[in-house]
Specification:
globular
């Protein structure tokens, strides 16, 4: 049996090794170097598991460790994502009084009087796909972009640092409210470190500057308040999560049973008022059409790391001679209807009055959406990770490890995916999910009782 000091020495070595690997991720890695990418990521995941195991009750050590891992990326330019160029572009537009929802970068770059800082560099960096579409980032995201532009004084690195500090503070907030929420759910608050030390979280949120973490901060804070019956205070905070990323809209019907008709009506009203207040400064007659068109592209045009969709496409092309570009549009138009139907079934046929059941319903709904979606970027899984930590399910942790296989698409100029790798990813994730469902006695006993199988 390892003594305390031996364990602590091992933990320090794990931290030092992780810092070295994160430094490689931050400064010495290109996303087309797939072998190096997955090797480093697997090693970091193993180190994460060991740290959580060895320092199980050492909150301060794990907190400082997680902060150190994030600070490695502070002055690094993201090398696994180019989205940050569009973030800064949108912030610079608003700083100069231009509504990013009304003009595409392709249109603006041709104007001789465009005076935003680093315009050509930002335009070139964001890529042609982003440049030909209107901004799809909700208003609170835009506010963060604008603040970073103001504070940076036109410096790209300055904007990156401001946005990184924002994402780091959000992660600390998730750890703080996540631990409190876990206690209210009767679960070990130590589970929150599966988020705080998770390599996917650190690399995709702090490293690649995706704002799912800021959205999740408001989401976890709001759910914590709801768990303490402070739903009125929770409503505007929940609205903030929607105003960063639209995904939490999926869960709104589920609160109907949890809060009851009267309370939920006021809850929805407060959320609606908050959203409208933040939308008004950006509103114009073209805003709704442009934004809806841009968001709709995720359902009808884009494909990445899909599971069910790839299977449907393979069958459609091989046996029904379907055209892939037509198939994705038809499939994309069907998915919202399926998810809305599932949300209503979970709303009216599950006992969401109980906070634990509510969390499980959210996990079922979001998992179903991602399994059916034609586009599942690696950072999307972090929302599932949070919901998994708050419930009895650990398959999102497995998915956090395996989703790195999707980065193979970046090893070639055409972003061609390797369907064998995606098959391995989803077979293992779904296999582990199936194992957990059958392991969970509460679910199986409820199933047997409902269908008289006892």
């Amino acid at each position: 049996m390892l003594t305390f000091w031996k364990v602590h020495k091992i933990s320090i070595l794990l931290v030092l090794g992780s810092l070295m690997f994160y430094k490689v991720f931050a400064y010495d890695l290109q996303r087309d170097d797939f072998t190096k990418l997955i090797t480093l990521f697997a090693a970091l995941f193993f180190f994460c598991f060991q740290l959580i195991k060895f320092e199980k009750w050492n909150f301060k050590f794990l907190l400082v460790t997680g902060l150190l891992f994030r600070l490695v990326f502070l002055i690094a330019e993201p090398n696994l994502s180019q989205d940050f160029y569009r973030f800064i572009w949108d912030g610079e537009l608003i700083k100069n009084g231009i509504n990013p929802y009304l003009y595409t970068p392709n249109t603006l770059i041709e104007k001789s009087d465009l005076t935003i800082a680093n315009a050509q560099q930002l335009y070139d960096g964001m890529g042609s796909l982003s440049a030909r579409h209107y901004s799809n980032y909700p208003p609170l995201n835009q506010i963060i972009f604008t603040i970073s532009s103001f504070l940076s004084g036109g410096s790209i690195l300055g904007s990156l640092i401001v946005m990184r500090i924002t994402t780091i503070l959000a992660d600390i907030g998730i750890l703080y409210f996540g631990r409190k929420l876990l206690q209210n759910l009767g679960r070990s608050n130590h589970l929150a470190f599966w988020f705080f030390l998770n390599p996917l979280v650190i690399i995709e949120l702090t490293g690649n500057l995706h704002f799912e973490g800021v959205m999740l901060f408001f989401f976890v804070w709001a759910i914590y308040l709801i768990s303490t019956n402070k739903w009125k205070q929770a409503a505007p905070i929940y609205a903030f999560s929607i105003l960063l990323k639209l995904v939490p809209i999926l869960f709104l019907p589920l609160f109907l049973k949890h809060l009851g008709l009267k309370k939920s009506t006021l809850f929805y009203s407060l959320i609606g008022i908050t959203c409208i207040a933040f939308l008004l400064p950006f509103y114009s007659s073209e805003f709704i059409a442009n934004y809806s068109k841009t968001v709709g592209l995720w359902f009808s045009n884009f494909e990445f790391n899909a599971s069910v969709y790839n299977l449907v496409k393979k069958i459609g092309v091989l046996y029904f001679e379907a055209k892939p570009w037509e198939l994705v549009k038809s499939y994309g138009s069907l998915i919202p209807k399926v998810i809305i139907t599932l949300a209503l079934l979970l709303t009216f046929f599950r006992k969401n009055q109980n906070i634990k059941t509510l969390m499980n319903s959210m996990l079922i709904l979001l998992s179903s959406y991602y399994f059916l979606s034609s586009t599942v970027h690696p950072w999307y899984i972090i929302f599932l990770l949070i919901l998994g930590i708050l419930t009895n399910y650990r398959f999102p942790i497995v998915w956090c490890l395996l989703v790195i296989l999707s980065y193979y698409a970046y090893t070639n100029p055409g972003f061609k995916e390797n369907l064998w790798l995606l098959t391995i990813e989803y077979c293992l994730v779904l296999g582990y999910l199936g194992f957990e469902v059958f392991k969970n006695r509460n679910i199986m006993s409820s199933f047997r009782k409902k269908f008289n199988l006892n």
